[in-house]
Design a protein that fits this description.
By secondary structure, the protein is α/β, with parallel strands linked by helices. It has two domains: 120 residues, Chitobiase, domain 2 (2-Layer Sandwich), CATH 3.30.379.10; 362 residues, Glycosidases (TIM Barrel), CATH 3.20.20.80. The chain is built from 17 helices and 18 strands. The strands form four sheets. Strands 7-8-13-14-15-16-17-18 form an eight-stranded parallel β-barrel, surrounded by six helices. Helix 3 links the parallel strand 7 and strand 8. Helix 1 packs parallel to helix 2. The longest helix has 17 residues. It starts with 30 loop residues before the first strand and ends in a 7-residue tail after the last helix.
Amino acid sequence: MSPPPRSATTLPETAVTPSPPRTALVPRPAKARFKAGHFTFGTDTRLRVTAGAEPAAELLRTLLAPATGLRLPPAADGPVVLALDTALTGLGSEGYGLTIGPRSVLLRARTVTGLLRGVQTLRQLLPAQALAATPRPGVPWTLPCADITDVPRLPWRGAMLDVARHFQPLPYLLRYVDLLALHKINVFHLHLTDDQGWRMPVSAYPKLTEIGGHRRRTIRGPSGDHHDGTPHGGAYTRAELGRLVAHAAARGVTVMPEIEMPGHSRAALAAYPHLGNRPERALDVWTRWGVCDTILGVHEEVLDFCRTVLEEVMDVFPSQHLHIGGDECPTTEWERSPAAAGRVRSEGLAGPAALHGWFLTRVGAFLSRQGRRPVAWAETGTELPPGFTAMAWRDPEHALHAARHGHDVINSYHRATYLDYPQSPGPDEPPGQPGGVVGLRDVHGHDPVPAAASPQTAARILGTQAHLWTEYAATPARIEYLTYPRLCALADAGWTGPTPWADFSSRLAGHTARLDALRVARHP
């Protein structure tokens, strides 16, 4: 991992981080009552695991072993009990109940996912050193006595990482997922393709990664003609993506892939120019940021390409939702294309601009027939075809517009969820997306469910999601600096709901000890 950016907070490898207050949980549980006393793990502590709860037991062992050395073997009379009980309907699909006494620990849930969420709470309740990657001898591994009943407010709590603009290797993606799971983030939105790079292999179209996965240089800054002159590239193997999906699933995180279309497709067109509107033109993988006006064509071969790509994506990613981008699609090329004009006539459309909705409808219908749910960026809240889940990002009102038009909505207002914006206006802040600041208070103050939403409209707000576009985040250290602690605030909003700033900031002050134990290169 590269050195952290300026102002990042990291600890020397030998530093001893003080434990946070045991009530400093992020996100905050729905109900928690702490009592006097504690439970202590010893070298002989065993787990009693009911039928079906084995994945949670395995995760607990995996997470605690590096720092604590605890083996936690199974035993019929173990004092730490992980129990799956389908009768606990009030806990829903992610809730859990946790009872800690001086001599026993009981973690119960209706689903395995609920148990996995409870495992992360157990992990946070231990001394912060329990999160370290290397042994921490001499620390008493104690849990405070408590009664916790915890159910999330919203079902969708996501984080998007753009690996198209700056590729990140698989080991870092696994760490990224680990950090999401700690904060009970349940969707990892993986942005795999864009104008600047294509990262997923497709067997029928090998040039997508061979050519589309590499650009010859990268622009410096938001605009202009200054480039770094350094080639950049990378792509995942199918096996690596499968490993990522399995790793995330073991932690209760769903990986949702995104394949951009019909815009943001310059990398694909550099590999296969005949899929564009000017097949005779040779293109490079884009070396600039912003919105490229080179887009997919609308002839049948393009639709065949999209279906073939998405079939392979569905083979790798079992996620019910699949993101197809859909926004920032200039229609200039369609306006000049004879093939596009022919499509407008044959489909009886009003003009080239209507091809955007026609294209999304065709692709969305294909995904729906496969039992998947299409997701797309919503620029106005009203432009997506029926059946799409809208990721509303431009304006706070767009989430309401989309929900009122019958779409499920992920409220991702960019001034509260886009983590590529600087976190402060200070001179020492590293470069970020120009045009403003998204501070920790901005993220904390964003309620995904608009105050003006009726009960029927509010029911369509699935949740919220953070987004990190990587024009200004080429390294893991920079990614984490931009992400934390802002993602902690988003996790709180999605799981807990609005909380007073004083309550959140107090818990975060304790929680940073855990981030430091994990060596997260965070913003101070």
